[in-house]
Design goal:
The structure is a single chain. The protein is built from 5 helices and 6 strands; from the N terminus they run ααβααββββαβ. With 145 residues, it is of the alpha+beta class. It has 2 domains: 88 residues, Winged helix-like DNA-binding domain superfamily/Winged helix DNA-binding domain (Arc Repressor Mutant, subunit A, Orthogonal Bundle); 55 residues, Dna Ligase, domain 1 (2-Layer Sandwich), CATH 3.30.1490.190. The strands form 2 sheets. It has a 3-stranded antiparallel β-sheet. Strands 5-4-6 form a 3-stranded mixed β-sheet, with no helix packed on it. A hairpin with a 5-residue loop joins β4 and β5. α2 packs across α3. The protein is globular and about 50 Å long. The protein starts with a helix and ends in a 7-residue tail after the last strand.
Amino acid sequence: MEHRIDNIKKQLHAQSYKLTPQREATVRVLLEREEDHLSAEDIFLLVKEKAPEIGLATVYRTLELLSELKIVDKINFGDGVSRYDLRKEGAEHFHHHLVCIECGSVEEIVEDLLKDVEKIVENDWQFQVKDHSLLFTECANNAKR
């Protein structure tokens, strides 16, 4: 975990930001719960256990900054709730998700499935792809697993 925190600290410094104690507490929660897809409120409640003085607005600002810097990805699974997901180390793009629209279960796809699509978009439309995200949804009743 300390290695990841050091890397995030370097990413912040490269953009002239500091890893303040509040930002570090937020990052630690995201690292500890990396498999979860937490809302800002979820993160706030967990950060508050570590840093009782922190306010919800500070957590929101931290998450927005981390999102702008592509350290965290802000996602919505169609339920109107923004969730935050740490970007995998070394990943060029945000990873993909499989979401059941009935039970809400979420599975991650780490492989970059859109490399060929990106090439087509760049070649046919002269559009340089900086990032992408992909969300598949299914109804649990129709699942073939």
